[in-house]
Amino acid sequence: MSCPHVVEARLQPPRASQSVHREDCTQCFDSIDEPEGLNVCLSCFNGGCIGDRNHAELHQKLSGHPLVLNIRRTKKPKVEREEPPKKMSKLAIAAETENDRYDTHTSVFCYGCSGKEIERTTGNLPAVIDGVMSAMTFARQTEVQAWEQEINPCEHTLCLEQEASKQLESQNLAHCANCDLKENLWLCLQCGNLGCGRAQFGGVGGNSHGLAHFDTTQHPVAVKLGSITPEGNCDIYCYSCNDEKSDPEIQAHLHHWGIDIAEREKTEKSLTEMQIEQNLRWEFSMTSEDGKELKPLFGPGFTGLKNLGNSCYLASTLQCLFALPSFKERYYEKVKSSLLEVLNPAEDLETQLRKIADGLLSGRYSKPDSDVASEYSTELPHQKGLAPAMLKALIGKDHEEFSTMRQQDAFELLLHLFSHIERSRHPEGLEDPVSDFRFVLEQRLECLGCHKVAYRTDTQDNISVSVPARRIKTPDVVMDGVGEAEAGKDKKDTFEPVTIKECLDIFTADELVQFTCKSCGSKQGAKKRSGFKTFPKVLAINCRRFDIVNWVPMKLDIPVIVEDGALSLDKYLSSGLRPGEELLPDDQGEDNPAFIPNEAAMSQLEAMGFPKHRCEKALYNTGNSDTEQAMNWLFGHMEDPDIDEPLVISSGGGGAKAGPSQDQIDIVTGMGFTAAQAKKALKECNGNVEAAVEWIFGHMDDNFDDDQPMLEAPKEKSDPGSQELPAEFKLNSIICHKGGSIHAGHYVAFIRKELEDGESWVLFNDEKVVQSGDAEEMKKFAYVYFFKRA
Question: EC (predicted)?
Fold first, then answer.
């Protein structure tokens, strides 16, 4: 039938920049594979399911958009092949196409015409339909980009000044200027020096002479000779930025040294190819000790998440969080019967977290799929898994690291996600689930001269503990299996096991610090000790096992022993001010340690090689919460004459509690906001610049009078957590990592679950969910531990 709404709607095909959600619903994981299919709005291209949940109808009521394209996909019958199909390569994504496997059916319906099907040739409907069907879907776009790093030029490649040219040795005869290596050679584009690179995955040799050349000359840009192709593709590395970069003038810069790219032949793998190969190799065993395949699990709470390329850090973190009561209740159990009325669900954090919760916990999508055959047995198919593409894009938006397709640190992602959830609005009756992680850490400082004391408190949602490295001198021992630090190396250091209690003992032990006492004038220093003033319901512990190699944190395989029984934290409870103790004056001048740096952010900055005093200053001036903002502050203040002096605080308090710093105010006002807006927003957001900007946009009706008198006294907030004893915790889940660096390798989650045959550990390895049984070895090398209060 003809429809008058086609002309009225003024439909246009989707632009290249628009997201077309034509694979799954933006509010749940129902997809075009459902019997009813998926309705795609032809005005804004939102995807809505039309089954029992009918999110498509909800979107129509909110938006008023009448026309939808129904897309339904069915599997084609399998055709028997005389020859086996070609093996699909991650590097060559174009293999079997969607059209080879599925039949796709489309129809146009109009809600304005009582939901009737209409003639698809009316007006410009054909062009719009073709545009929707040919547009790259949101999820597919993510998958394709997942194996391509986002590499851009930098100031050093754009402003490169080359020295006088000279003739280089031919490609076959070239070798490192400092050793005899003839592979993994890097050409300094500034002076023409040839230096070998760092040792690479797969046994590629390297003595880091290229890096040594940079340390000596400060020539930043080098190109890997063996990676140059006739098309002009090659690996370019900037040592100053410590990252891969691109060079728009690479052809001219190479020609300066007598290299004609048209005559070059690629002889070595690129860095991207090696990273992909390495990440694919980090597989966690899916078989038991007797060689039998681990049993796949299905149903509520046993749903896997697809790896979007390098997104295993996200999948493992989400699995651990949504196995906890606070996240289950907040985003699933208390809201599953209600519908969120949001015009743009794909851009709404509340909607996407509920979507993830429903996907993981409902069991609706946890079913065996014959297309996902096991590599060990065709009789044990796994599930298809859900693609968390919308949530990944949303929480990574405008973030320097999480917006890319590179592997990231799962612990940093956890803190980033906590920050987003804390800043989001929580409807009445629904609590912030991160509150279960919060507790108060108390710091006690005692002057070594007069023995007067000072106490400071800091609210935290995690702790990051150091793991002592005690090497066992057995260089010829060959290790395999769990905890392998770097593929291609058979000989490596081994370490004595360390208990989690020893790590906590070190975390709460006395530490000597520089201190000038204004009470007695002593410069002997002070003893500083941290303890728990309250305990959380869930304690997240990040175990730091790193060593800095060429300014890159490399993981050490130190076993951490965690007992199966309850972990008692009673002895770590801080006693507070004791009888007979005398407090130091509130104003301790320049040496007053009123500021307590965020433990997790501090440890991450120190792991990057920044000195302690610089880290403290950066965190103090950026709100004491965000590692990225602190790092940017450091890069902007490297030339400050007092950058290495101890932190000076003019009065008691620290960081956000002392009010926003001028640097923070300048950042916000530099975006076009007034000083009053900046001050108030920064105070409301504890100095977090990113959150402050969002807060301003959400409170535009505020008069932003920072100095207005308080009409009533603010309500005193109680400390998060509990002081109740005994404080016993049981390990609930772990995030494990394989690989030499936290920014490469592979992450999985092990979660303690109640199964039909009793309690057992369950392995969540991307879309694969299997009963693991014994996780003792994995517990020793976990990266993040989640302890639940017993």
Answer: 3.4.19.12
Domain 155-279 CATH (choose: 3.20.20.100, 3.40.47.10, 3.30.40.10, 2.30.30.90): 3.30.40.10
Q: How many other C-beta atoms are found inside a 10 Å radius of the C-beta of residue 717?
A: 7
Q: How confident is the model at residue 91, as a pLDDT?
A: 36
**Is CATH 1.10.220.30 the right assignment for the domain spanning 312-436+724-789?**
no
Query: What CATH number belongs to 5-135?
Result: 3.30.40.10
Q: Indicate which residue of 5, 21, 156, 746 is catalytic.
A: 746
Round to whole Å and give the CA distance between 122 and 245: 49
Residues of the chain with pLDDT under 70: 1, 78-98, 139-150, 168-173, 200-204, 272-292, 373-379, 474-492, 548-553, 587-595, 623, 625, 648-659, 661-663, 672, 686-687, 691, 697-717, 740-744
Q: What is the residue-wise DSSP string for 724-777? A: -S--EEEEEEEEEEESSSTTSSEEEEEEEEEETTEEEEEEEETTEEEEEE--HH
Quick check: do 5-135 and 155-279 share a fold? Answer: yes
- HSE, CB side, 13 Å, CA atoms: give it for residue 298: 12
Cβ-based neighbours of 672, under 8 Å, separated by 6 or more = none
Q: Are 220 and 210 in contact (CB under 8 A)?
A: no
Residue positions forming the annotated binding site for Zn(2+): 176, 179, 196, 209
746 as an active site residue: the answer is yes
Which of 431, 444, 461 has the alpha carbon at shortest distance from 535?
461
Q: How far is CA 175 from CA 169, 204, 219, 554, in A?
A: 9, 15, 19, 28
Rounded to two decimals, what is the model's pTM? 0.72
Strand partners, 237: 222, 244
> Helices (H) and strands (E) in the chain — how many of each?
22, 28
> What are the sequence ranges of the domains in the chain?
5-135, 155-279, 312-436+724-789, 443-560+568-698
Q: Which of 312, 543, 615, 685 is catalytic?
A: 312
Digit-coded pLDDT (tens) for 681-718: 777 776 677 767 777 766 665 655 544 443 344 455 68
Phi-psi region of 642 (alpha: psi -120 to 50; beta: other; left: phi over 0): alpha
3-class DSSP assignment, residue 42:
coil
Q: Are 568 and 433 in contact (CB under 8 A)?
A: no
